[in-house]
Amino acid sequence: MIAHRTRVKICGIRDPRMAQAAARAGADAIGLVFHPASPRAVEAELARDIALAVPAFVTVVGLFVNRDAEGVRSILERVPLGMLQFHGEEPAGFCGQFGRPWVRAFRVGPGVDLLECEARFPGAAALLLDAQVPGQFGGTGTAFDWSLVPRSLSLPVVLSGGLDAGNVGGAIRAVKPWAVDVSSGVESARGVKDAARIEEFVRSVRDADASAGG
């Protein structure tokens, strides 16, 4: 039987060379943040340079938080994004209007019914699950209780929130996600990605997959 390969997304890339380093390390996707309040935010011109530097078969994902439709379209006109990721209060109809596959993020905590969330977003390519931190939309470096993720979700799960090379193996064993998404866990300083930490993270994911397959 062929073992499942957990996909890896490195989010918050702000440098074309770091995007290439992530791809060389084995990342399946890189994330570009279009939320001005984030320390990892990029303007369209830089985002375009990063996207054009990414090699074939690595998906470039654009992350948005409550951006209006005109703002999303403006980015799409200038940046070749392969997928969209929504982290605010965007309804399903909004997410699905841009002609790109999309991921809907949810912040997981007590009282959050992920099965009900999934039912409201049947057109999503995946559900991204992050930690619930008041006033924050992601990128906090905070993990959540992985036991809150129902095994009965039908959409692919992208696990995020406080992941790093030291805990991602346990996260994969606990949740068995389709993919993992890391940002602060591969940084040397806030908003500054580190190529060695990206390599270590991807290696930890592959080791977890190999252990599961064995």
List the uncertain runs: none
Number of helices: 7
What sort of overall outline do the alpha carbons produce when their principal axes are compared? globular
Cα-based radius of gyration, to the nearest Å = 16 Å
For the largest sheet, list the strands in their spatial order. Answer: 1-2-3-4-5-6-7-8
Sequence of secondary-structure elements: EHEHEHEHEHEEHEEEH
Residues in β-strands, percent: 15-25%
Kindly report how far apart the N and C termini lie.
10 Å
Quickly count the domains.
1
Mean pLDDT: 93
| Broad structural category | alpha/beta
| DSSP E strands, number | 10
CATH superfamily: Aldolase class I
Major sheet: 8 strands, parallel, barrel
Helix content: 25-40%
CATH architecture: Alpha-Beta Barrel
The CATH topology is: TIM Barrel
Summarize the structure.
This protein is of the alpha/beta class. The chain is built from seven helices and ten strands.
Question: Would you kindly provide a written description of the structure presented here, covering whatever features stand out?
Answer:
By secondary structure, this protein is an alpha/beta fold. It has one domain: TIM Barrel, CATH 3.20.20. The protein contains 7 helices and 10 strands. It has helices at 16-25, 44-53, 69-78, 92-95, 114-120, 168-175, 195-213, and strands at 7-11, 29-33, 59-64, 83-86, 102-108, 126-131, 157-159, 179-182, 187-189, 192-193. The strands form 2 sheets. An 8-stranded parallel beta barrel has the order 1-2-3-4-5-6-7-8, surrounded by 4 helices. It has a two-stranded antiparallel sheet with strand order 9-10. Helix 1 runs parallel beside helix 7 (195-213). The relative contact order is 0.17.
